Structure formats: C-alpha cells, structure tokens
Amino acid sequence: MTSRLRLEAEVMSLRTRHPFIIARHGFDEVRSIRVVLRDADGLEGIGEATPQKFYGETPETALAALDFYAPRLPENIFLLEQAEADLARAMTGNNSVRAALSTALHDLVGKRLGVPIYRLWGLDPATAPISTFTIGIDTPEKMRLKVREAAPYPVLKVKLGTADDLAILQAIREETTKELRVDANCAWTAVHAVRMLPVLEEFGVTILEQPVARADLDGFAQIRRHARIPLIADESCHVATDIPYLAGRVDGINIKLAKTGSLREALRMVAVARAHHLMVMLGCMVESSIAITAAAHLAPLVDLIDLDGAALLAEDPWVGATIEEGRLQLPEAPGLGVRPR
Description:
- The protein has helices spanning about 60-70, 80-90, 95-115, 115-120, 140-150, 165-175, 190-200, 215-225, 245, 255-260, 265-275, 290-295; strands at about 5-20, 25-40, 45-50, 135, 155-160, 180-185, 205-210, 230-235, 250-255, 280, 305, 320, 320-325, 325-330, 340.
- It is α/β, with parallel strands linked by helices.
- It folds into two domains: about 5-115, Enolase-like, N-terminal domain (Enolase-like, domain 1, 2-Layer Sandwich); about 120-340, Enolase-like C-terminal domain (TIM Barrel, Alpha-Beta Barrel), CATH 3.20.20.120.
- The strands form four sheets. Strands 4-5-6-7-8-9-10-11 form an eight-stranded parallel beta sheet.
- Strand 7 (about 205-210), helix 8 and strand 8 form a beta-alpha-beta unit.
- The radius of gyration is 19 Å and the shape is globular.
- The chain starts with 5 loop residues before the first strand and ends with a strand.
C-alpha cells in the first residue's frame, strides 16, 4: 500500500551548553533526526527521533528505519491508533523513530482540526506540574556553577553514580536549599542504594530514580522495603506491558517518548500506571523543542516532569514549549505548535 504522505528526514547536530555526563556515558553533542510528513495538500507534520545506543538505536539505524516505514504510512491520518499499531507490527524496535512518526501524525491531525494536541486529549496545560532542571555529573565546583545557572528552576534533578556522590551532594546542598531529586542511571547495586538512603534523606532528596540495572527488579523491591522516599523506574520501564512487573517494587515510572515508541503508548502507560496506583513521571532525552513539546502535551496527566532537554542545549533551533520559573508553557498553535527559531 502506497501512502499519500511524503516523508522527509534531516539529521540535526545539537551541541550541549556543558558536557552532559551521567553514570554510564557523557557527550557534548547529540545527533537527532527531524522527521517531516507532508500530505497531498502540502500540510506538514513534524517529529523528532532521538536514537539512543543504550536502547539499540543510532542515527544510522534510525534513517534506515524511516526508509522502511515510509511506504507503510497511513492513508487516513485520523486513524492514529491503527497507524501506530501497523508501524509497530511492521518492524519492532526503533522506538524513537516510531515516536517521531507518531508525533508528526498527531501534529498533522491537530493542524487539520485547528487545535493543539493537548486539546485533542481534553487536557488543561495549567494543571501540569513543575519541571525539574538536570545537573549532570561533573566536578563539585562545576556542578555548583550549574546550580547557579539553574536559578530560575525551583526543583533540581542531580545525576549521581560516581565515587564522588557524597561530595557532589554536599557541594550542591551548600549552594542551594531547593528541592533535590536524584537519578543514578542504573549505576548502583541494591545494597549500595540501601546504604545511600539515609544519606539522601540527610540532604533532603525527595525522589530516587533508577538506582539499579534495568533488569534488576528484585533490587528495586529490596530498596523499596527500606526507602522512605519514592522510587521511580526509568530504564526498566519502556511500554505499558512493563508496568505490572514493576508494581509493588517501585512507587512510580518514568515515561519517555523515545522509549515508548508513540504518543498513544504513553497515554496507555499513564492509564496502566494509575490502575496499579503508581506515580507517573514524564521525562526526556537531551533533544530539541520538537521532541520536548511532544512530551509536554502529555504533562497535565502526570505527577512529575523532567522536560529540560532543550534547555541543556547551547542553541535550540526550534521554539515550542517553554519553562518559566519551572512552570511549563505550552504553545497554543494547532498541532504540536513548534516553529523554527
């Protein structure tokens, strides 16, 4: 079946303001892919794929996947559920690519109907929670500088997972009294995480995200038996069917579009998490405002958001959702609401 939609793709090189370092790697440049779907009338929908080697994707595999999906795009853009299911059945994996196509399709539908995506879902942007700003791993002195640069943000997320975790927490707490959340990005064992819990409490940490390896569900359960702060699964939770295995072992899940493969899967994840009485966090990769804005349309549905990926860039080539004093501001234009800077 040949679709009337035309697909175009462009690799974007996005440099970060500072080298962005987490427990498993660091970088100062991201290669993401802008995806454009153009219908027969010339109307465009856009999306962004942010392939992650950790999840089995690279820019090269993403471009190849887009070539595969191009002739399998839907004839009817309004059949979003069917379109996403068909793409997932055609070839598994490639979640960031399918998320980009999902975003572009929703952008087209919103533009056709003349409403922002959040209105398609009946959501009120004013109810979105405060966003965190991420402080990547660095020397304690440089992390102090990053804290000062994050002055407009009332809540900080601190990356840990090094031999200097205690010094990092001390330096940041000496610099600020703001709420702190911690993300260890799979770097700790369950035993080490349990030992760290009193330290985190001493420094006023309010959330602990993904302390153990993504397959270590029993480790999550061990930590949760001792924790008095909420425990959030990120790398361990990709799609809705992962959630029942995490229920009882964690207090919440982190949804990222690049992991889920689609906006509609993200909606399902919210529903399944709620059915299991779990908190829901909405996160991101380091990416441009295209992908950040796509996630932001979901923000009124969740409890916690970490949508600072574009704010970590030296220069964002797109304008979309913004964060002012930690408060998310969604564009009111139809569809995604993103435009070139």
